[in-house]
Amino acid sequence: MWPVFALRRLPIVFVVLSVLLLSGGIGWALGNNSILSFMLLGSFLIHMATRPGRREWLTVLGLAVLLRTAYAAFLGFHPYFGSVLVSWGSFLGLASLVVQLIWMARVRGEARAARRITFLTTGALPYSWLILAFCLSFVTRTPRSFDAYLLAFDSSLGAPVSFVFGRYLAENALLRHLTKTVYDALPLGASCILAWNNRSRFRPVSVIPMYITMMVLGYGLYWLYPAAGPAFAYRGMFPFASPEKWQILAMGVAPFDAPRNAMPSLHFGAMLLLMWNSRSWPVAGRVAAAAFSCGIAFATLGLGEHYLIDLVVAFPFMLALQAAWSESVPLRSACRYQAMAAGGMATAAWFLALRWGLPAFLASAPLAWGCVVLTVGGTIWMERRLARVAWGLDGVAVSAAGDSLCRAASTTA
Questions:
Q1: Is the pLDDT assigned to residue 245 strictly greater than 60?
Q2: Are residues 295 and 156 in the same domain?
């Protein structure tokens, strides 16, 4: 039995070792990195969504105050916009993780199993921050950059949207700071989905594997099409001096040091998953999710982190992931396997077109706009077709009538 026991413990050993190896700078980041603060705030919100007892949440709050006080005394803060409030997220999340461990040790049976799932869910956010920070450091060292191709395509549509939004933010310092805060607050969207998934009995989509797959495949795509965004590739020009579209490819891009993590936009892609998987939320929650997603889209462009085409390619990529993990719909059902195939092929087609088809786009704005509209519109149609089945019936009913339901959905979507 010991080999089975050892295999079951391997994931735990891997997580512990990776935390020990990769957490060298986490002490400073805990109080001074806004993204980590939002990650841990998300962990706190997931914990609170389980409605812990009064004694438990009071313990979390008290421990958070003690941790923040100790941090200020021994390490100190480096202020940034909103840090007085945002940095609290780190200590609320850390306190939440500690208290969950203590409470988990006090219970047995099903109660411990439920708490273990909640703890693993809350711990996934800060752990993903460690892994992503490590992985992106390798992408940074990639000498290649295809930013010129992406900016050239955006220019084929007219004035590059990222430069237009960037100029607007450059003229309003307060709006720029608020936009940067929204951009860093991305983990809150994921935490809402994870909190709902942790509590709900109706789970038409396997959310956690879907997010993991998104990060793994997205990281691989960064290597296939490395690009950083106009704020990095065109530093000194962004956002006031956009090159002429016929000069972009000829002038190239000077060497720069920044993560090549622009294509596709996983920031915006995660927001698509948020909107697609919040269908069972109250209306107010869905409106908030849509508004937050629009804010993220604006931030990715206005801050120069992405090109418009990065957001467009995110549509089919996320469609493929959504279909792949919509396990309430049988894989043989047309609305599922067609969405997977269409999303994957459209993503691949864009990668090829953006590498070797730019002359055609630059010569014809209607062609460029037509491809964009077809991609976004086709993705929305196929996702709605899939959602009518995945969110309309439970897994047993869908298994019995999956194909007929897909056909019916295709006529009404």
A1: yes
A2: yes
Check whether residue 149 and residue 134 sit in a common domain.
no
Residue 104 belongs to what domain range? 1-141
* Band of pLDDT at residue 226, cut at 50, 70 and 90: very high
Which tens digits make up the pLDDT trace of 302-320?
Answer: 999 999 999 999 999 999 9
Q: How many angstroms separate the CA atoms of 77 and 220, rounded? A: 35
Does one domain contain both 183 and 311? yes
Residues 128 and 190 in one domain: no
Query: What's the predicted TM-score (pTM) here?
Result: 0.88
The C-alpha atoms of residue 327 and residue 305 are separated, in whole angstroms, by: 33
Can you list the positions of beta strands (E) in 101-237?
A: none
Distance of CA 201 to the CA centre of its chain: 24
The answer on 289 and 190 residing in a single domain is yes
Between CA 266 and CA 91, with CA 12 as vertex, the angle to 5 degrees is 65
15 and 50 belong to one structural domain: yes
| Helix, strand and coil in the chain, % to nearest 5 | 75, 0, 25
| pLDDT per residue as tens digits for the range 95-149 | 999 999 899 888 888 888 888 888 888 888 888 877 777 777 777 677 889 999 9
